[in-house]
Design a protein that fits this description.
This protein is of the alpha/beta class and 414 residues long. Strands 7, 8, 9, 10, 11, 12, 13, 14 and 15 form a 9-stranded mixed β-sheet that branches. α2 packs parallel to α12, α5 crosses α6 and α12 crosses α13. The two termini are 22 Å apart. The relative contact order is 0.15.
């Protein structure tokens, strides 16, 4: 997910509205005292609160579970939760406050790349460990950050050949006209061509565009074998409704790098519109494993009436909390560098999403990824890929050689 998005607010789903009512009054700060402070910076209001609310719910649930098991180092965890409202000045203010006033031992947060690039340099400067748990375009090189979300080399690289194998090699790409959409569309073109295909056109749309009639006519004229959607946000959901209304749903299939990434699309679009869209992510709630079934049951038990939408973002927030807690136990310390060294040691973690490890060269996750077909609001897993490397970020980042790196690289595909 990328830079700040200037568009109207995401329509509130029933689940998100219910979840918001369960949250504590925010912003609230935690006094350091004898507690270990965990900072949370997720958008609990504003136009991406549909993603931030579940992430915050899961972070608080993880804190509760760790405390129920005895805490860490003989201390309890306490959340310091702030609502940046999708406003970068508030992200900056609250990140500084978490580092200097609250003395947070770790911060979980950020959704867009703009928010991450606001938080990250501040926490790097003040030596406060930071977890970014959202899929994004790749390229961050910072030893102080652990990036658990998937990157294009882990998902788009798998989705493109799989969907081309099903439907054909002639691809029409539609993408959001900003950083994430532009970079991901370039990766789509790279992977299509590597697999012997052709991108017949790539159309970019500002995030407030809601009328896709002319574009649908262009796609009909181009007669591609498939559409690759890199659309983002509520306005762009109009494409899927208009596509179905034009009678195209059963004519040209759709794969997407973004659809359902935060879960809200399933609540907003009817099954007859959304069914059959292929995606590839590092987590789906339908993963058939004991670890995931147990975790989903825990979430449902903790939030029986206000169950958070489960997606990469919320699942990886859980994983971030558990990986950090494991590092604290292993190091017997809250010392930031000792924790980093534990996570760089090559440990493999069994998580709801599958196996996960931290690549010591980039601090990105090496993880299992899945291709899924959406049917009646349930993701049907079609294929699993084990331990996929963040190869795109590995092109620009080697923290063994440059341990003091503090940069987000825009990976060039030229």
């Amino acid at each position: 997910m990328t830079r700040d998005i200037t568009r109207r607010s995401m329509l509130k789903t029933t689940a998100a509205i219910g979840a918001a009512s369960a949250l504590p009054m925010i912003p609230f700060a935690a006094e350091a005292g004898d507690d270990i402070i965990v900072g949370g910076l997720h958008d609990l209001s504003g136009f991406i609160d549909f993603a931030g609310i579940p992430m915050n719910q899961i972070m608080l649930m993880a804190i509760e579970e760790i405390n129920a098991a005895g805490g860490l180092l003989g201390k309890k965890l306490k959340g310091a939760v702030y609502d940046p409202q999708t406003k970068m000045p508030l992200y900056s203010q609250f990140a500084t406050q978490l580092a200097l006033k609250d003395k947070a031992s770790v911060v979980m947060g950020g959704i867009t790349s703009a928010s991450r690039e606001t938080i990250r340099p501040i926490l790097h400067r003040y030596k406060t460990l930071y977890f970014y748990n959202t899929l994004y375009e790749g390229g961050v090189c910072d030893r102080n950050e652990i990036s658990l979300g998937t990157t294009p080399a882990q998902t788009v690289e798998k989705l493109v050949p799989y969907s081309m194998g099903l439907w054909g090699k002639k691809v029409y790409t539609i993408a959001a006209d900003y950083n994430y959409g532009q970079i991901t569309a370039a990766w789509v073109k790279r992977y299509v061509e590597q697999n012997g295909g052709e991108v017949v056109s790539t159309d970019f749309f500002p995030l407030d565009v809601t009328n896709f009639g002319p574009t649908i006519s262009k796609i009909q004229s181009a007669k591609p074998d498939m559409v690759m959607s890199v659309l983002v946000g509520t306005g762009h959901l109009g494409f899927y409704n208009q596509w179905a209304a034009a009678g195209m749903k059963n004519e040209i299939p759709i794969a997407s790098t973004t659809f359902g990434a935060a879960g809200a699309e399933l609540e907003i679009l009817k099954p007859e519109v959304a069914n059959g869209i292929l995606t590839c992510y590092g987590y789906y709630p339908s993963i058939d494993s004991p670890a995931n079934k147990e975790w989903v049951a825990k979430v449902n038990k903790r939030y029986p009436d206000k169950t958070p939408l489960l997606s990469e973002l919320s699942a990886f927030t859980w994983e971030g909390m558990m990986i950090w807690a494991d590092a604290v136990r292993s190091a017997g310390s809250l010392d930031r560098m000792k924790l980093i060294e534990v996570m760089e040691s090559g440990k493999t973690y069994d998580m709801p999403s599958g196996q996960c490890a931290i690549d010591p060269l980039t601090h990105h996750a090496i993880r299992d990824v899945y291709i899924a077909d959406l049917q009646d609001k349930t993701y049907i897993i079609k294929k699993k890929f084990s331990q996929v490397q963040p190869a795109d970020t590995q092109l620009v980042c080697n923290l063994k050689e440059t341990p003091n790196a503090n940069k987000h690289y825009e990976i060039s595909l030229e």
